[in-house]
């Protein structure tokens, strides 16, 4: 099979271009021939991002709310315990159920209601705290540490090493 | 497990556990919630144990024959808000003693007072509260100087303006103690 001289010239030019393109590209990209060996020296680890100051305030406020609400609940619980101990009876006390006794009973009832409300608020704030903790989580980021070369001349040679700082 | 129970006991608010029969009824038959005033004992009891007010005593006082210090007691009842129970007290003919009358009654029901009436029904003295309520009862006292040979009537009736549970407890029982103190 014979071909015309134009076709032969075109084929040669195409082959030359195909071979030359990667070489020129490699030179243009300034290829790091030690990439493979240095990559192994890089230390990479996952690092938790810091929460924003606003998130810190929110979480701190919720936590403080839990503590305060629980404290109020405990205060009224103790008060209701006092009233229960004061009025509770299984045998004849010899006392009369007068206005003072009724007022004390009512105080205990109010204390029980307030303790329940305070504990409910503390529980709601605790749930809000957990949700906020989850929602304000900024996630993690990858940190790569490049080694620093260390060369220490010694008598008759040198100590060569690498160090990573973080 | 014990620690959990202790924590729960610390956190859980308490309701007073009041057994029936632990307290005397207060004014207007007041009692702890879920309890009612027992008419027979004026104790606060569970509703199923409540009995109606009962009183069948008829008060009488012995005849005073001398001015020697003495004390006598009788019991009686007042059944309605405008009811009266009367006890006659005759003084010895030869002396006029100092007389003190103490009326003790449950505070659960209608409060009572004693009016001392002389001949013709004129009021000589009226009792007033003389002790703080204690043990479910209170006391009303009156004192007067009896005239020799005079007969007095101790008229026991409701104290004006006292609570009557809106008429539902317009009754009471009483113990009347009469003391002859001195000529």
Topology:
The complex is a heterodimer of chains A (166) and B (183).
Chain A: H1 5-28, H2 35-39, E1 43-48, H3 53-87, E2 95-96, H4 99-135, E3 140-145, E4 148-154, E5 157-163
Antiparallel strand pairs in A: 1-3, 4-5
Helix pairs in contact in A: 3-4
Chain B: H1 2-11, E1 23-24, E2 36-37, E3 44-45, E4 70-78, E5 84-90, E6 98-106, E7 112-117, E8 123-126, E9 128-134, E10 137-145, E11 151-158, E12 172-180
Antiparallel strand pairs in B: 2-3, 4-12, 5-11, 6-10, 6-12, 7-8, 7-11, 9-10
Explain what you see.
The complex is a heterodimer of chains A (166) and B (183). Chain A is an alpha+beta fold and 166 residues long. Chain A folds into two domains: 1-50 and 139-166, no CATH class; 52-137. Chain A is 61% helix and 17% strand. In chain A, the strands form two sheets. Chain A has a two-stranded antiparallel sheet. The longest helix of chain A is centred in the C-terminal third of the chain and has 37 residues, at 99-135. The model of chain A is unreliable at 16-29 (pLDDT under 50). Chain B is mainly beta. Chain B folds into two domains: 2-49, no CATH class; 70-182, Sandwich (Jelly Rolls). Helix content of chain B is 5%, strand content 40%. Chain B has one helix at 2-11; strands at residues 23-24, 36-37, 44-45, 70-78, 84-90, 98-106, 112-117, 123-126, 128-134, 137-145, 151-158, 172-180. In chain B, strands 4-12-6-10-9 form a five-stranded antiparallel beta sheet, with no helix packed on it. The model of chain B has no long low-confidence stretch (mean pLDDT 90). At the A-B interface, helix 3, strand 2 and helix 4 of A face strand 1 of B.
Short structural summary:
The complex is a heterodimer of chains A (166) and B (183). Chain A has 166 residues and is α+β, with helices and mostly antiparallel strands. Chain A has helices spanning 5-28, 35-39, 53-87, 99-135; strands at residues 43-48, 95-96, 140-145, 148-154, 157-163.
């Amino acid at each position: 099979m014979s071909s015309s001289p134009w076709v032969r010239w075109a084929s040669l030019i195409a082959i030359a271009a195909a071979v030359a393109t990667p070489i020129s590209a490699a030179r243009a990209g300034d290829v790091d021939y030690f990439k493979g060996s240095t990559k192994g020296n890089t230390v990479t680890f996952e690092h938790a991002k810091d929460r924003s100051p606003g998130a810190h305030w929110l979480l701190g406020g919720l936590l403080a709310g839990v503590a305060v609400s629980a404290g109020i609940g405990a205060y009224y619980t103790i008060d209701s315990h006092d009233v229960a101990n004061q009025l509770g009876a299984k045998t004849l006390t010899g006392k009369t159920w007068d206005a003072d006794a009724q007022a004390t009973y009512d105080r205990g009832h109010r204390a029980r209601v307030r303790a329940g409300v305070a504990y409910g608020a503390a529980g709601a704030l605790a749930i809000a705290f957990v949700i906020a903790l989850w929602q304000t989580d900024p996630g993690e980021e990858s940190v790569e540490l490049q080694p620093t070369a260390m060369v220490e001349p010694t008598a008759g040679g040198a100590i060569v090493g690498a160090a990573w700082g973080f | 497990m014990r620690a959990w129970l202790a924590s729960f006991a610390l956190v859980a608010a308490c309701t007073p556990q009041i057994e029936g029969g632990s307290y005397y009824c207060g004014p207007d038959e007041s009692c702890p919630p879920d309890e009612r005033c027992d008419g027979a004992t004026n104790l606060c009891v569970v509703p199923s144990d409540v009995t109606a007010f009962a009183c069948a005593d008829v008060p009488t006082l012995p005849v005073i024959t001398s001015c020697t210090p003495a004390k006598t007691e009788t019991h009686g009842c007042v059944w309605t808000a405008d009811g009266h129970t009367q006890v006659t007290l005759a003084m010895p003919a030869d002396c006029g003693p100092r007389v003190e009358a103490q009326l003790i009654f449950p505070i659960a029901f209608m409060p009572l007072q004693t009016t001392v009436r002389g001949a013709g029904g004129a009021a000589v003295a009226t009792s007033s509260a003389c002790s703080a309520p204690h043990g479910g009862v209170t006391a009303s006292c009156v004192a007067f100087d009896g005239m020799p040979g005079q007969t007095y009537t101790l008229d026991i009736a409701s104290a004006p303006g006292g609570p009557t549970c809106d008429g539902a407890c317009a009754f009471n029982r009483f113990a009347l103690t009469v003391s002859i103190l001195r000529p």
